[in-house]
Description:
Blueprint: E1 2-7, E2 10-15, H1 22-30, H2 40-60, H3 65-79, H4 98-115, H5 128-132, H6 138-174, E3 179-184, E4 187-193, H7 194-216, E5 221-222, H8 239-251, E6 256-257, H9 261-266, H10 269-295, E7 306-307, H11 325-349, H12 359-385, E8 389-390, H13 392-400, H14 410-413, H15 415-428, H16 432-439, H17 444-450
Amino acid sequence: MTRLEKDPLGEKAVPADALYGIQTLRAAENFPVSQLRPLPAFVDAVIWIKRSAALTHRETGRLEARLADAIVQAADEVLAGKHRDQFIVDVYQAGAGTSHNMNCNEVLANRANQILGAPLGGYAPVHPNDHVNMAQSTNDVIPTAMRLATLASLPAFLASLDVLAEALLEKGRAFDHVLKSGRTHLQDATPIRLGQEFRAYGRTVARHREKISDAAEWLREMNIGGTAVGTGINAEPEYPRLMVEHLAEVSGLDLEPGEDRIQLMQSMGDVATFSGAVRAYVLDLNKIANDIRLLASGPRTGLAEIILPAVQPGSSIMPGKVNPSIAEMVNQVCYQALGFDTTVALASEAGQLELNVMMPVITHNVVFGLTIVGNASRIFAEKCIRGLEADEAQCAYWLERSPALVTALAPKIGYAEAAKLSKEALATGLTVKELVVKKGLLQGAELEEVLDLRSMTELGVPGGKGIPAGG
């Protein structure tokens, strides 16, 4: 069953029970690209705008109360999870997001008319452009929705980073007594505590959390009211302020009217800055996941200094094999997220004059990036970091065989002699301590003090009674 609708391009048969209309259907037919639909946060953001506009226009007297109330009721139904299958425009669509904007306009107009007892597709008494889109343009709706969708997705993302940071810091506390070999250039280096490594990971995540939160502050200015080119044609003077008040109320977000709505329409710099902050976190998250895989490598032919919780069998051919599955998932998410940021960067540069038409792909990449990186961070904490254990014996085994322990001897015997000891340790298989004893270089309390492994993990000169290390 279909109904016949008209638009400036002609007539088209629309499914009889669809809440969307002819413009949405044209877009769906024009862009069968990915089979990806708009993310829920993006739908919510545009519906918040339409709801707020109806309330604003009722308040200013520009829109009849019964029409405004019907639009608000329709919007509330969508926000409650209803009619979600009616948002059908592909993520990759015409520039600026006109198709998604009209999809929302048509759904709300048709549902409002149903509420008022009118048939679908007639667009009376509520019209998608004249009433739902009153005093709006795609050009101010979508930049505003981009900011709203990002800010609305942020709390869950930051909470996931908090979970991961705390899990890493907890392991830092639990492993503070575990001495092990440090490594630089993937070669043996001076001792470090396993707890120090994990505490540093946790602090890295926590620092990025703060940087991302700071970058999000740039997104709180709303350019709604700019209409077509940022100048505000067809919007009443009270409109921007009232819109932001209603948007803040419905979203629960801290928002403010844009100081320069033309600037906010021309430039995607704010969202690019935010995406860049997320990218910086992703780079470190990927490094941490790789470190976890290295530290857990083995169990017999790798470092094997930590033991990861087994979450699934690791091989279809090698019985008993357990892989670092969660860390591998994190790696893949990070690579995807880095691609998202590249897309955002290129699309943000691609604006011309008063508008950047690449907003749909920018919004999708930023919001989807927050979703998958946040989920990956939380899963990493819950299914990997919290359950991993230290293999203290293996850490000690590698540490006592490390030729880098000669570093502690350098202030006593000089760099050149220490280097000779290192080479001899490698050639003979003896430990540094065994060589020092064999050669009689140090003995007794002085030997134990200089080669005190724990003291090598703190600031100072081993055996130097707390004298700070020189260059």
